[in-house]
Write a structure and sequence with these properties.
Protein name: (apollo) hypothetical protein
Radius of gyration: 33 Å
Number of helices: 12
Strand content: 15-25%
Pfam families: DDE_Tnp_1_7
InterPro entries: PGBD (IPR029526)
Number of strands: 15
Number of domains: 2
């Protein structure tokens, strides 16, 4: 548990909750018509700029999607049955080892600009700043295609990934051949695009512009040695970048239920993805190994420390209209009288009948104004009228 008195000394709890309720990341008056992501678009652009400015990616890059759990009513909510949280907002990530998110985008579903949402264009958009530099893109079967491989080769970039058998321009002798466990079949184009089918427990269709159909020995956790295509081994190693990023983000996550989708998305970006990237940079710079939980705690403690104790006076209610009753000095009769100021306000707000019933009567009391002057009830009534 951590304690910070800054907000407590600066404002009341109700004031803090009001400000938290008004939390926004963009100006609603500057919204473009039809922009589904205007609530968070500026934040995403700012983070992408910082992610790319402070890290030089490795040769291997992986494109995959993550899912932020959200079951609210939103037009671009996605369903991914292979994820732990099946409903949510899909995030398209470009990651590199060891788990650094180099660029990300929010998938807003099919819109009028559907041409920009095709898998090929998504990959080209995510890696637009890294083309013509000799990188290798690793993608799953939702993104991989021969057309994407051609476009990346034109930009001096390799592509490795799994394939769906219904993709265009695939050789039929590869897609239609039935294999036994351990067997494989492959074909290669003149540009060096290899399409390969290999069967272990089930058939897997692969594509690579970097590897041929070479098999390599692989040792499992149980010590079993088997031969696997080099494409598979390279793909599994690069795919771990996204898996590691999602795994570390899930540790002690601050995400909570909320009605506003953009708040949850912003919390994930600022408190999960950004923290994981900061941890990767910290480990590479200091060569020290630290867990994500301890790293979060260190950031919290650093942000809690202030150069000097801030003594901000608590907000004070205005003095106008505030008064109290005190006992009258000297001889007095046991009479119960209304405070004229309270009675007048009640008449104005509730009516005469309700004012008679609601206004409390005090025994031998007169009003004392906040100005520290002992004055009678009639004078107080005149001052506050």
């Amino acid at each position: 548990m951590f304690r910070q008195d800054f907000a407590k000394n600066a404002m009341s709890r109700n004031r803090f909750e009001i400000l938290l309720r008004m939390l926004h990341f963009s100006n609603n008056e500057e919204t473009e018509k039809g922009d589904r992501l205007h609530k968070i678009d500026k934040l995403v652009k700012t983070l992408n700029m910082n992610f790319q400015a402070h890290f030089i990616p490795n040769e291997s890059l992986c494109v995959d999607e993550s899912l932020i759990p959200f079951r609210g009513r939103i037009i671009f909510r996605q369903y991914l049955k292979q994820k732990r949280h099946k409903y949510g907002i899909k995030i398209l990530k470009l990651c590199t080892t060891p788990g650094y998110t180099f660029r990300l985008e929010i998938y807003a579903g099919i819109s009028s600009e559907s041409k920009n949402n095709t898998p090929t264009n998504i990959v080209l958009n995510l890696c637009s700043n890294l083309l013509n530099k000799g990188h290798t893109m690793y993608t799953d079967n939702w993104y991989s295609s021969v057309d994407l491989a051609d476009k990346l080769l034109d930009s001096k970039t390799h592509l490795v990934g799994t394939l769906r058998k219904n993709r265009k321009r695939l050789p039929k002798e590869v897609t239609e051949t039935k294999l036994k466990p351990g067997e494989y079949i492959s074909r290669e184009t003149q540009r060096g695009i290899t399409v390969m089918k290999w069967r272990d427990k089930r058939e897997v269709l692969l594509l690579s512009t970097k590897h041929s159909n070479i098999l390599k020995e692989s040792t499992s956790k149980r010590g079993l040695v088997t031969k696997k295509p080099k494409i598979i081994l390279s793909y599994n190693q690069a795919k771990s970048a996204v898996d590691l990023s999602d795994q570390m983000s899930a540790y002690s996550t601050p995400l909570r239920k909320t009605v506003k989708w953009y708040r949850k998305r912003a919390c994930e970006l600022l408190l999960d993805t950004s923290i994981v990237n900061a941890l990767v940079l910290y480990k590479q710079t200091t060569k020290r190994n630290i867990s994500i939980v301890k790293f979060r705690q260190a950031i919290i403690k650093y942000l809690m420390t202030t150069p000097q104790e801030i003594d901000t006076p608590r907000p004070v209610r205005p003095l106008r209209g505030i008064h109290k009753l005190t006992r009258k000095e000297g001889v007095s009769k046991n009479i119960r009288r209304n405070c004229q100021h309270c009675y007048k306000n009640n008449v104005k707000n509730l009516g005469t009948l309700q004012a008679c019933n609601k206004t409390k009567k005090k025994l031998r009391l007169i009003a004392l104004a906040v100005q520290k002057n002992l004055i009678c009830v009639l004078t107080v009534s005149m001052l506050f009228s």
